[in-house]
Fold this protein.
Amino acid sequence: MARARAAVRAALSGVRVESPDRLLLVGVSGGADSLALAAATAFVAARDNWRWGAVTVDHALQNGSAGVASAAAEQAARLGADPALTVRVQVTAAVAQGPEAAARHARYQALSEHARKLGAAAVLVGHTRDDQAESALLGLARGSGARSLAGMAPMVEQHQTAGGGGPACLLLRPLLHLTRADTHAICVALGLTPWIDPHNSDRAYLRNRVRLDLLPLLERELGPGVGEALARTTDMLRDDADLLDTLAVDSFRRVRVRTADPQSGERQVVLHVAPLAAEHAAVRRRVLRLAALTAGAPATDLTHGHVQAIDRLITGWHGQRGLDLPGRVRALRVGDELQFTDGGVTP
């Protein structure tokens, strides 16, 4: 328990709040990870003069989910959470990555919305080192880049309104260096009763196969410590990805000619090809992705293959026609300009 308390205190050291009425929100699912986090937060909040509350999200995807959510909120309340809320959400199937991603999107949206309503300085969630290792393996299996392999960041700044304005709320993951075994031990020591989600044993889900089959196999065949090594790798890759993203943003500002077409009113991003061609491929492709996203391409649908195809308009230019990208965005090279226009309209 001491390690969990220290982790929460370390995470909160990065939170700056001027108001004396300081509130933290903990996402409490009722599982061992979130209950251990709630218990650690309760201790730190009392010691360091924070108020804290809990939000339990009912995804309504299983029979009896309302009862599970209510029981989780009751345990949080017994630990001292005030308020201890349950929130029922509508999980839509429209999210491209599938039902797990849709549920995650709905959950974070609900947490962010209640953080805004309650004026919380931070939302804490209970991901562990095991979650980080699983994310790294899933990224490898999907052929993802460094940003995906970097896993989950311990701190993410999120704006509390859909448009990106308003005060920022920090999303904190204090337990990324603790294991599930650690959180279960905390629950046993404190007499907490975690909920065992039956979905977590359903091998129809890829993440569960990684958790139940692949990681134990790697531990047996490669020796203990694989999960720890994978989590350590995500930390190193995150630093690299952060640096490359910063370089890409700086490059984007230098090579951008304009971001709107004043005549048509279309959203448009225009890049100067010559200085972009001189950039390292790792930076240049990030700039191209950023330009496509700025023009309106949805991040969930813009693939590495799309970015490679755009890159060939710079590195393998033979007068070829433009490219149709997700979100009805079109990329077209015109002389020494690379133009991204929304609505599928050729500039």
Observations:
- The chain is about 50% helix and 15% strand.
- The chain has a mean pLDDT of 88.
- Residues 255-344 form a domain with the Uridine Diphospho-n-acetylenolpyruvylglucosamine Reductase; domain 3 fold (CATH 3.30.465.60).
- The radius of gyration is 23 Å.
